[in-house]
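agent> call fold_tool(seq_1)
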Amino acid sequence: MDEENVHQVPRGLTLEQAQFLELQRGQEELSARLDLEKVVFLGFVISQQGVEVDEEKVKAIREWPTPTTAFEVRSFHGLASFYRRFVKNFSTILAPLIECTKKGTEFKWGESTQRSFESIKDELCAAPILALPDFSKTFEIDCDASGVGIGAVLMQDKRLIAYFSEKLSGASLNYSTYDKEFYALIRALETWEHYLLPKEFVIHTDHESLKYLKGQNKLNRRHAKWVEYLEIFPYVIKYKQENINVVADALSRRYALISIMNAKLLGFELIKSQYVEDPYFSPIRLACDKGAVDGYYLHDGYLYKLGKLCIPSGSVRELLV
């Protein structure tokens, strides 16, 4: 029934018919919007390619005048922070600006704050298109830490999903480099928990000591808390290799090979756990806990005989042998 005939409908149905026509208009408008290549939604531009910043908001950031008071810095920070997920190490870049807004300190604008101000503008103007997450694919995270901040990136198939960053303060500023990177990992997991919990994902790290953390007999309170949280996730660690020192000694070359394979074969760590399930290697592995036995010995949790790596039964053996 068209809109002109609404007055002919019995009185009891008039309101319902008007509501129906209103809903129909809304459906037509929605269909028209769905035909658009891009949609602006809550300050973001969404398309088949992914999510990007709204040019109107970025224009306001680009044209923002140099702040002259702490209040103006906070206003700029509030607007810029809306798009922090698009900028790698956002908090680290913005750290000099935050310092000049602290209570009880005199507002000072110098070279470092101006550089920070300009850098964050440039980064937002060149912000990448972030891919939309695909839950049928594997997520990957890569963490980093600096003297004043931590950061992480969430990826799928080498496409960016989001950046995370946080300025360190208080006790965390005094963490060791290893603890800062471990803390960056924990904060990244907390931020993207809703993406990462359902399915196995990959953690990229250049700290091999992370793989030994669970095997330590004694953990300090901080590490124990982090490890407990880490263990709720179905993760696989992949080590980033930079310069591997391959020495002339044949045994050292084998250890270097293990490091390379750790970086390239997901699940290579399974070898260690499969020793106990292998009927041949299980008793040998147990005996080697106390020392070398008949040419067998342990190194970094792997079982060797006369310099040769022992591969237990399983999918990894089928892949390698």
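agent> call fold_tool(seq_2)
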Amino acid sequence: MKLPQKLYQLANLYTISGAAMGVYAITCVGGRFGAAVDLLALILSLLTAVSLYLVRPEKVPWWNPVHLLLIGINASLIFIHATGFNTATHAFPTQQVPKVVRQSLLPDFDAVPWFPPADQRIAAQFVTRTVNEVVATTQQVRVGLDDLAAPIREERAGLENRLREERSRLEENQHEGRLSLELDLREKRSGLEKNLKARVAERQRLEETLRKGVHPAERKAVESRLAEAQQAENRLHDEIAEHEKRAQEMLEKLDAKEKRSLAELDSQEKLWKGRLEELVIKERHLKELEKEAAPILEALKQQLETSQKRLNESVQELDRSYAGVRGYSSDLLPIK
């Protein structure tokens, strides 16, 4: 099939814009699959120019130097047009340019922006945000672990204080009760012994009086008083013995009561200590979790910081590479 002679005019030679759009679309797809877009676009532009020349009219010679020159020019124009489309759709974004500028004709396939530092900067900012999020997450994990451990520590401290207070209170009450009982027993015994001493003195005085001799008329009265003193002395001995027995029983009851109180306290302490052991285990588990999480979070943070450093170095290198490109400035900020 040959094109008519009238269509073969320099004004519409080879439909440069249409060919460029085809090259641009094909390079977008090729870039999606990892092809070298610039080299692919150049080859496609040259092949398109040559293929269009193959449908020339029969009267047009093949080895015409002018037409061969036009093939090269057309290939260059196609390549430049395709590059221009890419520039229009992937120009370096600024705060003043809307996001629609970054849209491409084939957004799902186009992977090569005209100014790579734009995406590099965006990637660097993304890594920076990720680093900040990791740091915040690390802090949140630590705060969360502290929040979990705080009530455990408070409960454990409260139980320990309660154990000490209960034992101290019981020991203090037992000590005060024993002292009070012993004091009462000593006072009563002291009174009995004082009365006994007086009765003994009275009996000895009466016995001495009888030994010295008394008037027969008074002797009977003295003997009667001596008998009464002896009986009173015996009653006091019995009272002292009864008091000792009663005191011993009271002390034994007090000892039994103290033992019961101590047994109850020991039982309560056993329950509390079991609870304390549970709290200690939970606290230890939380510390182990924090210890296990710390290196993982730190490693992730280090990895992200390394990625950020590499991206920043890549951006700086690209800034230097694109320093001479018209319209490019490293001060332009990418759209966030």
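agent> summarizing second result for user.
Helices lie at 16-32, 37-53, 65-90, 116-212, 216-321. The two ends are 53 Å apart (CA to CA).
agent> awaiting next instruction.
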